[in-house]
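Journal club side-thread
Mid-discussion, someone asked how the predicted structure for our own chain would compare to the paper's figures. Pasting it here so we can look after the session.
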Amino acid sequence: MATFLYKVGRLAFRRRHYVALLWIALLTLAGVGAASAPAAGASSFSVPGTEAQKAFDLLEQRFPGMSADGATARVVFKAPAGEKLDSGANKATVEKTVKDLGDGSEVVSVADPFKGKAVSKDGTIAYASVKYKVSGMELKDASKDALKETAQQARASGLTVEVGGDALTATPETGSTEIIGIAIAAVVLVITFGSLLAAGFPLLTALIGVGIGVSTITALASALDLGTTTSTLAMMIGLAVGIDYALFIVSRYRAELAEGREREEAAGRAVGTAGSAVVFAGLTVVIALVGLAVVNIPMLTKMGVAAAGTVAIAVLIALTMIPALLGYAGKKIKPTGQKSKLLGGGRAKSAEKSARPNMGTRWASFVVRRPLAVLLLGVIGLGAAAIPAASLELGLPDDGSQPTSTTQRRAYDLLSEGFGPGFNGPLMVVVDAKDSKTPKADVTTVTDKIKALKDVTTVTPATFNKDGDTATITVVPDSKPSSVTTEDLVHGIRDAGAEVKADTDSSVLVTGTTAMNIDVSQKLNDALIPYLILVVGLAFLLLIVVFRSILVPLKAALGFLLSVMAALGAVVAVFQWGWLSGLMGVEETGPVMSMMPIFMVGVVFGLAMDYEVFLVTRMREAHVHGEKPSQAIVTGFRHSARVVTAAAVIMIAVFSGFISSSESMIKMIGFGLAIAVFFDAFVVRMAIVPAVLALLGQRAWWLPKWLNRILPNVDVEGEGLRKLDSKDSDPDEDRELVRA
């Protein structure tokens, strides 16, 4: 591996014009494809295998034209203080608004609140339900604009008018702090390298990689049903790993220069050593992201695969474009320890200052002397941070989690005020009586059983299809959609349906947004353990090959579990309990997004292994070259601690930039990943890892002889490069590389 990548690095350095043109051409091609592709909204959402999805599919078959998954909007009216909606002028405004709402080409029906008994008991609040032919993700902008304009015209009469429902699905906005995150990354790179040019290379290559990845996603969005969240996630992870991967190679290049190597040779060795770590670190991230497919939720699978593709591009760019740019820079890139003149370089250092160990060396020496104390402090600290995770409640965001400044949230609050909190999450019960001889009697039995359950406010009369073999019943709970009480009601209705199925030939299914959210949460919970086994197992095998050790990969996996649990605890504390919610812009606390645990496990595991590979491979390299285990730890930190710290700060800054997003899911993901990187990089990798390795000593690198014989030698530490010398370069190396 190291020898092959060494040749790649030298080839890219020498043929830099071709390499640069290739990546610019790919970026241009992706950009043209994105510009010419039709726009796509948020990805459609389906959850195969769940009861709620089965009910939706059944409704499509038995109620043709009903558009069970079509978008809905609730236009909510509130009369001015002291007035009622059934008064002359107010009633006329509502009726005119209902008429105008029905004019759209995508509108299926509009329910008049006065005819449909959709007026509150005190007569001050009412709503008109609008049903569309297509889902909220497929609804045309013209239909959304017409909905907003009609509501605005009604407001002119003095009524309070707000619009809720999924018809106003909006593209999330990330805000200015995303740019601030990149700016912070630039400052960190300048401080790390002491050179504006060297600092600019990781940013440039990361932006090119993300540009290619996101543009490709945009170009394919309509054809593959990729939503805006997919490209946002790819941008988030692509920026972070792209900067980090380039950072490690540039840092190693400067270290090779400091050892007196020629620039082409230094580029080859940097790609051969640090590049090998980049390849395996990237593989762990890709495995974790692609592994999300085991959950069998199409939207999550697409997000994972798209982000994995962006990571793969980041790896390829780091291995090829970075050495090409280093070739262009020439002598402007200084060896490690030297700064550019603009940033204070060229000044003579005192002998005392030059001989002083750097911070990484001092910290590693301290940990080696006090490993047990550092280990206990780190584990106890992360354990305390993980305590809130025991209170984790899962759900999917609805209009109740929107900022109070949005019309969707205000409509949600008005409906709760006028009709009760459960009105925002009605349940649809579908009775399949196709095989029954007494369908109407069976439906009556189901209705009576539901009315007898607790937490039921309203049960509407059943609506049969044309064939009379399928009926729908709407149930309004007494509690809000995301409450545990409502979840218990869903399970109660399903238990009652099982009894009906046992006594008759009719099946009972519960669906609707609330039931779908409950099913998604359950599906994600059930998939978490298999996903952990798959992803951690594959990465564990990969790390055994990289480190040629059993205990080092095991320690890496256990450390990851500590950091991800601590990060989940922090997410619960902020988004569920409300700690520091004002600082994070969280206006409404509630359940944590259902896919957050499994998503964090996947992404954080991949990123955690990044730092593990970059830090420990340098220790492994020192150990292979003859150093004692304790000294190898110090050597690894001397060469890698500064760079790993910079990489972590950059990744935290990039992820934190997404906390300002207007979409709660993006905000939560940004915070969760940022705090997880903080815990993993600064507590697990920088403290717990060296402490455990110091306690294990030589045993850390133990590998059974039979396993050592059958494992492939990937040579991540670059042992094969020790036999090479800059003067051994072959003028026909290009052809050798092609044959390799």
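Post-session note: The CA atoms of residues 112 and 487 lie 30 Å apart.
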